[in-house]
Amino acid sequence: MLNTQNPIPENVFAEKVTEVKHYTNSLFKFRVTRPKSFRFRSGEFCMIGLPNSENPIYRAYSIASPFWDKELEFFSIKVQGGPLTEHLQRIKIGDTLLIRKKTTGTLLLEALLPGTRLYLLSTGTGIAPFASLIRDPEIYEKFNKVILIQTTRERMELSYANEIVRELLDDPLIGDFSSQFIFYPMTTREASDHMGRITDTMSSGEFFSRTGLPPIQATEDRFMICGSIAMLKDCVAMAEAFGLKEGTNHAPGTYVVERAFVS
Ligand code: A2P
User: Fold this and answer.
1) Ligand 1 in reach of 241 Cβ (< 6 A)
2) Deepest of 1, 42, 85, 177, by most Cβ within 10 A of its Cβ?
3) Could you report the per-residue pLDDT of 90-108, keeping only the tens digit for each?
4) Cβ atoms within 10 Å of 166's Cβ, excluding its own
5) Rounded to the nearest whole angstrom, what is the distance from the C-alpha of residue 230 to the centroid of ligand 1?
6) How far from chain centre, in Å, is Cα 186?
């Protein structure tokens, strides 16, 4: 079903699935071959689809792999009855994935003014662009500390983040920077070392007393934010309350938000 003979449009790459890994009933990652001419900046997203109809449905997916990886990685939810994920969750090694050639996004290092610490705030699959960025050595050249905060309802949903962080610290390319990287996993509905929402733990100051990091200062700290509509809204309000200002590729600021997945 996933390898029909429909012609591939000129603005689309047809790539082969090389790995699929399911973490929970609702979360999985997959990797595909990467065309040599497919270039992107760490943190960007692209539109992906399946060749299962004459008019494939495309959805925005952050590229979770870094720019230097020879394959492309994606991290996805499984929505029963979802127009794309209903089928995507059944892909197997060797299947074809369609990828539109154009990439874009706002979670870019260029969209941030220089700073000391970079906070990557994510919930759920919002971790995907950060999975790319934390594997890009440039992030550690630009910031003294990179702090990844990922919140999920339950501990199992942190499996992908835990896996990437483990691999990251073993990676010789990034390993040298490991003293600059802090991972702060949180859960809201199952007991774990750090319980609660990002917004609550940062606004109350609990996060800073637990990590020993200084309270947010607009001159030093930068935020990148990726998650659900409600999470973006609350994290943006928190960032603004800390005195941070939103940046874009053309006018860098002190925080950036990815809104592509929630419109
Ligand atoms: P909570 O369990 O308190 O709703 P979801 O699966 O609904 O997208 O949620 C993923 C994670 O994001 C959950 O831990 C959830 O916490 C948290 N979350 C949901 N809404 C917000 C928000 N407005 N601000 C911060 N975290 C949120």
Assistant:
1) no
2) 42
3) 999 999 999 999 999 999 9
4) 11
5) 8
6) 16
